[in-house]
Sequence to fold (330 residues):
Amino acid sequence: MSLRTPLCELLGIQYPIVQSGMGSAAGPELAAEVSRAGGLGIVAGLGVTADELSRRIRHVRSVTDRPFGVNQWLHTELRPPVDPARVPAATTRAVQTQLNVFRERLGIPTTHAPAPGVPDLIDEGFAVILEERVPVWSIGLGNPDAAMVRRCHERGIKVMAMVATVEDARAVEANGVDIIVAQGGEAGGHRSTWLKKPREEANVATLTLVPQVVDAASELWKKRLLESDGGETTLTEAYTGLWARSLRNRFTEDYADSGAPVLPTLMQQRAAQDVFAAAAQQHDPEYTALYAGQSTGLVHDLPGAAEVVERIAREAEAVLVSLRAMGGAR
Fold:
């Protein structure tokens, strides 16, 4: 198969649509609903133990026989995870000092303790993907080496990698992936690179293809998405230590204004976890990670995942019919 082969032909899905994994939002229920509707549902595997990942995979299979995938991050700072002891004390102190500003506003205890380390779960998760023969192994923020790709192919597993630059696309193609997903700079969430690059380096815009609304997003998140337009997003590293596009709020703006550094990949998120938890409990969007793309201005309602897939398919079919009519009129 060529990398130019349509996704639907490679995977046997009805429509060439991908619902990418979004952390805890991309659970088995959402993945199954997208796959049942004719798209490709993706289960998030980041930070998930082998037992939990097996449970999620089997849950999807219990409710649909359609193709689906499991997503992992292969970022270099996660293979293996950065040891908290290697983080300079001055960096930890500066990060926690700024986070303490947010903690005081939310009425929770302050701390200057080092952030917990990130668990090393990539290898055990990959072993589960191989054992379960998941139809698609989806990689975000990483370049799978040729040996990993080969092990997937030996088990009939397709390999899909998300990239944000032409250079990275060439790299994953050289390692034999089946599908390349190009992520434009306007897309929501993290920049899909495996090395943390300067803020604007992986920010080349593409046409915004479709607005994606997921059922598992919180009501707070949905409300802010509906109230926002594309100009209200920003690239921030304050949530996880990696650049990600989200809606602007006091967390992103005050953290940037403070000049505080950030901790290594995902350690930053673990340091701020109590802030995020308190904000969620208090329904405070100003200290919540509201990942969103520049297409937020195109979102005007909150359909279910299946309806989103069906609506996109209908709109695509209408465009194709229009193009055929234009061609016949010449």
About this structure: Confidence is low (pLDDT under 50) at residues 14-21, 206-216. Residues 88-116+216-303 form one domain. The chain has two domains: 1-82+118-208, 88-116+216-303. DSSP finds twelve helices and nine strands in the chain.
